[in-house]
Amino acid sequence: MGIITIEELPARLAGGKTLAGLDLGDKTIGLAVSDQRFSFAHPRPVIMRKKFSLDATVLLALLQKENAGAVVIGLPINMDGSEGPRAQKSRAFVRNMGQMSDLPFVFWDERLSTVAAERTLIEMDFSRRKRAGKIDSAAAAFILQGVLDRLQSLHASARTEPDPPSAA
Q: What range(s) does the YqgF/RNase H-like domain occupy (predicted)?
């Protein structure tokens, strides 16, 4: 399927599908999944990275189990708006996943998502060791929640926009 925009997501999520969020780390893949009403992001256990083919097989099995209709992936953009090597790795990951699955992917600017996730885990009094095992899934939940909030906003603005004038 490839890459789609946020505006194209609703058409892909009909029929009880969920939306998944990913945060790619060097050692783990953080995963979060929405509820069917697209209100909340729920973190799932991280996937320990081994090699791409194994990671992709595990990820696709989990996405199927969660009934995901699309996947949001964090795009690590630099603070100045440029894309560096980590963003290139995320784009390559999506290209490679496209060869194994028809699931559509959406990129989402993930600047500061890991920082926000870590602050939240600290506030919840997680030890440093426990945070290390949860940080990528918490970041995936932050990324996914951002998209869910955007979808809600798009839906609300579509309901409140006046109809275009009809030609008389």
A: 17-117
